[in-house]
Amino acid sequence: MYFIELNNGVQIPQVGMGLAAVGGWQQDNEYVTDTILKAISIGYRQFDTASVYGNERALGRAIRESGLPRETFFITSKIWDTEQGRSKTHDAFARSLERLQLEYLDLYLIHWPVPAYTRETWEAMEVLYQQKKVRALGLSNFRKADIEQIATFAEVRPVCNQIELHPYFTQQPLVDYCQFHKIAISCWSPLGTGSSWSGVSQSEKPIVDPLIVKIAESHSVSPAQVILKWNVQQHRIVIPKAEKLENMRSNFLLTGFTLSNSEIREINGLNGNKRLGGDPDYAHKNNLTVKVPD
Ligand SMILES: NC(=O)c1ccc[n+]([C@@H]2O[C@H](COP(=O)([O-])OP(=O)(O)OC[C@H]3O[C@@H](n4cnc5c(N)ncnc54)[C@H](OP(=O)(O)O)[C@@H]3O)[C@@H](O)[C@H]2O)c1
Question: By alpha-carbon position, which residue is closest to atom 19 of ligand 1?
């Protein structure tokens, strides 16, 4: 397993599993728990959930049913737009822990920037960090200006920024800015989004791009493995979501081949600044209409 050291010394497995819409949007049932248990048996230890994914209980059950010690896992959850603000952040965090039945989180992220609330939310998160209820604090979907805002008051530095990143949307200037400031990049929708929630058709995804397929064939690996390795070799965290066992396996097994610098450059060249998911410039209004289930 590959690890990345975050800027506060905490180690995160570089390959994790994303849990948005496993079994459908906001499903919290035995199917989700079983899917996570399969991932655990393959070797996954990093799991990325969020209050709005509505499956924290299923993840907590899988952790308990695995019989593995809590400290072997790296568990991330996120605070939704409607939960931001000083006291709401404390309430939202407590609810996430309760649903997960955990005593602490490894990483807690602000899911989307809401600049009017960022200071209150982050300061409340800093209290949770000082109380050792969370091992690291981070951001998601933060633009450069949002990070600059945090830098004006934060006492605890964000360890990461989880952003949409795949070969068609590489966000290189933001990646360079974050990595320069030792904010690790975690790539969401690394394979080009999960069909069940995004409505993106298979033919639009980088996973079927002729260049990716050609490079995959030349290494005798899958296109998904090429995209994930392209991220891993550039020191980025990946959280692909997979429900099919063969997909889960191949996404986790990234050893045994290395992309050359020219292959990495060729894949970088696929960037078309093409977002397949939400845009932080506009997402907040719609996010307010999406409820966090109990
Ligand atoms: N912070 C944010 O705002 C944000 C936004 C979106 C997502 N995320 C996080 O990022 C995670 C991943 O993103 P995502 O779920 O949108 O999409 P993704 O990981 O890019 O793609 C998931 C899709 O790819 C398929 N797939 C997985 N492995 C494959 C393989 N080896 N070969 C072929 N197809 C494969 C999956 O199919 P099967 O499931 O059928 O195997 C699923 O349809 C989410 O689960 C969530 O944790 C965060």
Answer: 240
